[in-house]
């Protein structure tokens, strides 16, 4: 299982680093040692949280990170190489119509963006609780 997960993670890392694939749009955050790969948008490219929303519409569930704004994918034994290739394709498509605008006015992108910019981090928990209450209201 570990070899399989590492093959998928390595393929994903190669796609991100390859100039003919995604490297003009994204870059890795850190140096992944195992099967968790974090990545962010390059400056002037689509807001990474908008990318997360676009991937979510295709069924992907990424973990959003802050400082820096990024996403991470954890490859598990459930991820076949075909699934990895589908993720690479969908990530490419998320940037396909990008003109450099930061189109972050819908989905979860504004929420993540706001949380990253609030100077007093103590209020974020309260805000997120209120937001969840509204989302889950019957």
Rounded mean pLDDT is 82
Distance from N terminus to C terminus (CA atoms, Å) equals: 42 Å
- Rounded to an integer, what's the Rg over CA atoms? 16 Å
Give the biggest beta sheet.
Answer: 4 strands, antiparallel
Number of helices: 5
- Approximately what portion of the residues adopt beta-strand conformation? 5-15%
Query: Which ranges are low-confidence, i.e. pLDDT below 50, for 5 or more consecutive residues?
Result: none
Order of helices and strands: HEEHEEHHH
- Which bin fits the share of residues in helices? 40-55%
Helix-strand makeup class: alpha+beta
Beta-strand segment tally: 4
How would you characterize this protein structure?
The structure is a single chain. By secondary structure, this protein is α+β, with helices and mostly antiparallel strands. It is 47% helix and 12% strand. The chain contains 5 helices and 4 strands. Helix 1 runs parallel beside helix 3 (81-96) and helix 2 (48-57) runs antiparallel to helix 4.
